[in-house]
Amino acid sequence: METNVKAIELKDMWRRYKSSGDERARERLVVAYSPLVKYVSGRMASGLPAHVEEADLISYGLVGLINAIERFELEREIKFETYAITRIKGAIIDELRSLDWVPRSVRAKAREIERANAKLEHRLQRAPSDEEMAAELGVAVSDFLATLLQISNSTIAALDELWTVSDASGDQVSLLDTLQDPRAPDPAAVMDQTELKDRVADAIARLPEREKLVVALYYYENLTLREIGEVLGVTESRISQLHTKAVLRLRSRLIDDDR
């Protein structure tokens, strides 16, 4: 994302803050990059329950932005926006988790669906249909779809988290950000990162076409669930169900691969 501050001004603010700890420069950096917080909060709000206020998400995200500005190293060959978005998202997720607003029953249902999906994929050697999943769970298809919608409206876990890890402080950071020196990366870290990305890519490739399309439009084209619904000619609720199914499938596959 672009800020409203010219690149030369940003460069000067970064220089003054990092060289002398200029608080005024730090404040201006926060203001300059604040649109990133609005962007991340808006995208996350679309998949959360109505009682979660976007203003609260913005407040949580600002903490992540400030943390990103304080920790960012200018000499690293990575765009600050890329680094900051991960930090902002991590701060919001951490705060929502600390509130523990997701019912235990919803978490249990999500785990049950993941286990059922993994079991059926082993047996069928393909992604199971809604009917097969419902039969395995012993519920009606309509109840299975309703559960997916309930999980979608309650969960804060998304595909992005599949390739993030916790740093020493407990913050969620991108695997890319764990490389200490881009000019001389640790071979083991690069191998682990590449392997995980390959596993995620392989898991996505094995998704049913409709779920694969939803993943592509949401994570790569940055469309909202409502916009994807308009593209595919279905309701936002149906897209939410497809997105939830895709994420649960991916999680069950990656967890199963680690066993």
Can you give a write-up of this model?
The chain is mostly helical and 259 residues long. It has two domains: 7-100, RNA polymerase sigma factor, region 2, helix turn helix motif (Rna Polymerase Sigma Factor, Chain: A), CATH 1.10.1740.10; 104-156 and 206-257, no CATH class. 69% of the residues lie in helices and 2% in strands. The chain is built from eleven helices and two strands. It has a two-stranded antiparallel ribbon. Helix 2 (23-45) crosses helix 3, helix 3 (54-71) packs across helix 4 (80-99) and helix 5 (104-124) crosses helix 11. The chain is elongated.
How would you characterize the largest beta sheet?
Answer: 2 strands, antiparallel
- Estimate the strand proportion: under 5%
Number of domains: 2
Number of strands: 2
The pLDDT mean sits at 79
